[in-house]
Amino acid sequence: MRFLPRLLLLYLLFALSSTLSAEGTKQDYQNAATLRQKTNGKVLNEKIDLHWVPDADRFWYRVRTPEETWRFIFVDAERGSRKIAFDHDRLAGVLSKELQQKINPGDIPIKTLDVNADGSVLFTVDNKSFAYDPKSEKLSKLEKTLPPALKSRRESSRNTRQRDARSGATSPDGNWTIELKEGQLVAFSKDKKTTQNFQTNDALQNIRILWAPDSTRFIVMDTKPEQDHIVYMIESSPKNQVQPRLKSHQYLKPGDKIAMTKPRLFDLNTQGETPIDDKHFSNPWRIDRLRWSADSSRFTLIYNQRGHQVLRVIGVDATTGEAKSLIEDRSETFIDYSRKQFAYFLDERSEIIWMSERDGWNHLYRFDAKSGELKNQITQGEWVVRGVDRVDVENAQIWFRASGRDKDQDPYHVHYCRINFDGSELVRLTEADGTHELEYSPNGEYYIDRYSRVDLPPVHELRRSQDGQLICQLETSDISPLENVKGWRMPERFVAKGRDDKTDIWGIIHRPTNFDPSKKYPVIEKIYAGPHDHFVPKSFNAYYSAQQIAELGFIVVQIDGMGTNWRSRAFHDVCWQNLKDAGFPDRIRWIEAAAKKYPFMDLSRVGIYGGSAGGQNALAALLFHPKFYHVAVADCGCHDNRMDKIWWNEAWMGEMGPHYADNSNVTHADNLEGKLFLTVGEIDTNVDPASTMQVVDALIKADKDFDLLVVPGAGHGVGERPYAARRRQDFFVRHLLGVEPRSR
């Protein structure tokens, strides 16, 4: 009996060990390495390639069957009918006889197709056109080759691009040409017999000429060059020589002197410069979108102030040089000029369509182009405009993308809408719960709506552009081959409240294919908290890169915390001069909420990894939240924003100040707790490799233990190369699973 307690203890220890994950084996590594290949091509009809019949509301496409054969589908959009285009076995039989070669019914090489109302089929094979009567099975050659099919068209920002002031030395009437001689402007007449000299107080260097439509005046965009900031790197192991090679490139960083471009106005008749009061654009990050009015009485420009807290449309009187601010956005934090700047000049109506977050959400506004008076807010509500696809001037309508309109859906799902200039008659073109992509018919009267979620395979529908009316469903992707891959499962969407107990934070959960809910799994977060976008996948894929890490015996999560893009202004502002925050208070609460629902998530073992800005975030997790995160792998991180490229960092951090040092991983390196693995490419031209090496220096000075991999000859994103990626896997297996990688 005295042996029972010891036996019981051994039994309990065995039982406990069986509930802990015992992964990281050779087989797990093999599963991880082959998962992409196993899932590749296993989704049928994930995308459909439409071919429109010229001058008709009809189209065709092919679908792949589970038997690995192809079937042609024909759709008459006007009638709302969808059907198999023909009997594939019979057509292949008659075509084989005609061409005197074997035609596979499952892969008939048709290039052009049309089906008449009586069911007869017109098609092209091998540049020969035929007519086929399915009733009589008669095949006849056509004298004329069928015209090639038309492709669907995508609406995009290119449809909203406008021709602004055209640069060129020669005047619109062709009578004058401007040249720069010894820093001064000289105008030559067409016959070269007349010259006019324009005296300026300073020598001009880098210029661009923009003539007024009436050829009486011109603007010179005068650019003072940026400073030199040369970054040097040693390529230690060049392929074509034994000795190392010194490499260098121009690379401006926050606080550097940028190129300064400003407009200068000249009058051809007076041969003089008309001074422009630049009080409204004295400190430009960029001045662009110059546009002359049709009557040449003024020009406009868009001014983005350095520090990105002021964005203006400015009008300049061509006679007096007086400048007036027509539209102005100001922010105490930042204006997201790289993703949320849009201006469309309606010259015929003397109006400007303008994008702004002035009410706390990204929306569209209509202004009077002459006075700058706000006519009306076009879109409004607690949702965001994601982008404008088309401005229909004739019908006074805007076609745009939006997110967050549906409170019962993921707020990042992209939907399509149309609205009138005056804000009336908003038409929803998409409503289904998913993120959408549209392709329009060549005449624009119909569109194919393709939507999906990470947990919903793509669905394709044919709809009418006028009102969004469903005409017919085309295809729902078939994932039965994918479901036959042992253990495959879709990621799970999960929502939890953020740091304010109000805001929904969205993310996804990846499980290994050999998942056992009775076990305990370490949790790893794949992080990228760059403020320019959101990063959790929203559309369906058979394979996500995070799944490869999960295969080794982990639960991998991806989360969009506060400070990332495409929610409210307040949500985004969290990142302002505060990149070290990275949404961690939201991420930690989200993971804790998921673990409360799923006890198999072991929060005593939490890892994190990311690259670039994600590398900065991954290290920050151990510096600022070491009680929650225990192991981090940081690749090519922009660990100190003073060391990284100027545009990205000043966009969210503003101009140089003490907050840069406060956000630096270098500054806080002595706070390191947990296990850290740093990777970097020695010739990274995206993020200065010295950013990583300065962290290394600070960690050494603080007597902190860490692992480092510098890859010779490698650039940005080296962590995704096979060797570094495998080392990352090993690091997590060793320090979160507690086993030697691939040892079993």
Report what the structure shows:
With 744 residues, the chain is α+β, with helices and mostly antiparallel strands. Among the domains are: 23-40 and 482-737, Rossmann fold (3-Layer(aba) Sandwich), CATH 3.40.50; 54-141, no CATH class. It has 13 helices and 41 strands. An 8-stranded mixed β-sheet has the order 34-35-37-36-38-39-40-41, sandwiched between helices. It has a 4-stranded antiparallel β-sheet with strand order 1-2-3-4, with no helix packed on it. Strands 5-6-7-8 form a 4-stranded antiparallel β-sheet, covered by helices on one side. A hairpin with a 2-residue loop joins strand 9 (176-181) and strand 10 (184-189). The longest helix is centred in the first third of the chain and has 16 residues, at 4-19.
Descriptors for this entry?
alpha+beta; Rossmann fold; 34% strand; globular; eight-stranded mixed sheet; 13 helices
